[in-house]
């Protein structure tokens, strides 16, 4: 840190700087990267996040600010005391959004049409697990058969690109959750006791197709590996223009409105929950 700027250097030679308050997310991948305590301290103090990648270049951990919202206790209480019907209604909207956006990734294909037909079959809480049926249909059609793709959370190549993109957006959502005074560990559907980001995993669901569509385009263009170019493309999603509640804005800004609207639904001040979606201007 120097005069409020994060300074970058290579082999002792300065190569650039950036105002700390302008940083939303830092992704650290190179194994020989070093940084000072002041850098980490000031990034989180300004509300940013730091994502640390492991040997496989996949995000292995995330540093997010501790909640400083003036109503953090009240917000946590809202999460804990939310009624089951309220949580089931919100989950229904998230799943419907996920399936609808997935159908747009496959566009005019037969699978896309079949996915759209599933949207209205999702009932409150999704008791018949339409989400799983839609996921199976989606991944079977995500790439042409000659690619022999199979969704595997521990897989490489395309699976690695998907996992990388999900982790980046998950960190972005976690940051917005904390900024709004909520606790990422308390979800409305995901509830694994060892998962500190259950709510993040709930709210990311309708945003997953943003990553799915981006990686699909890279795959069809012959790009299979996690490298500088692919990481740049995926990180670019954070600044991409999205539509939310009738307005457009970059994802890293809109996601805060998304979390705030979720809070209104949790308090039963609103019934409908929108989500950031691909803007019509995207290629």
Automatic annotation (TrEMBL):
Gene Ontology molecular function, alphabetical: endonuclease activity
Signal peptide residue numbers: none
Keywords: Antiviral defense, DNA-binding, Endonuclease, Hydrolase, Magnesium, Manganese, Metal-binding, Nuclease
Xref: InterPro entries: Cas1, CRISPR-assoc_Cas1, CRISPR-assoc_Cas1_C, CRISPR-assoc_Cas1_NMENI
Pfam families to which the protein is assigned, alphabetical: Cas_Cas1 (PF01867)
Keyword DNA-binding: yes
Description of how the protein assembles with itself and partners: Homodimer, forms a heterotetramer with a Cas2 homodimer.
Protein name: Type II CRISPR-associated endonuclease Cas1
Designated gene of the protein: cas1
């Amino acid at each position: 840190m120097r005069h409020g700027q994060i300074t970058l250097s290579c082999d002792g030679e300065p190569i650039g700087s950036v105002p700390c308050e302008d940083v939303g997310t830092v992704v650290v991948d190179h194994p020989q990267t070093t940084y000072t305590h002041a850098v980490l301290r000031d990034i989180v103090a300004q509300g940013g996040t730091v994502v640390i990648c492991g040997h496989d270049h996949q995000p292995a951990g995330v540093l997010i600010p501790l909640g400083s919202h003036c109503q953090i206790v009240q917000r946590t209480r809202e999460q804990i005391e939310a009624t089951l019907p309220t949580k089931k209604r919100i989950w229904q909207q998230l799943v419907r959004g996920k399936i609808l956006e997935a159908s747009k990734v496959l566009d005019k294909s037969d699978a896309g049409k079949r996915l759209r037909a599933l949207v209205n079959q999702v009932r409150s809480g999704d008791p018949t697990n339409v989400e799983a049926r839609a996921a199976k249909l989606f991944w079977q059609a995500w790439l042409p058969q000659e690619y022999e793709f199979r969704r595997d959370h521990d897989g490489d190549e395309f699976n690695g690109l998907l996992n990388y993109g999900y982790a980046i957006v998950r960190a972005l959502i976690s940051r917005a959750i904390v900024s709004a005074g909520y606790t990422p560990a308390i979800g409305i559907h995901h509830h694994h006791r060892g998962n500190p980001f259950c709510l993040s995993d709930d709210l990311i669901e309708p945003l997953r197709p943003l990553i799915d569509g981006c990686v699909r385009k890279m795959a069809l263009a012959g790009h299979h590996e996690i490298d500088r170019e692919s990481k740049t493309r995926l990180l670019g999603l954070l600044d991409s223009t999205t539509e939310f509640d009738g307005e457009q804005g970059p994802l890293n800004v809109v996601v805060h409105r998304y979390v705030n609207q979720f809070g209104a639904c949790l308090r039963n001040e609103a019934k409908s929950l929108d989500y950031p979606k691909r803007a019509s201007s995207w290629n």
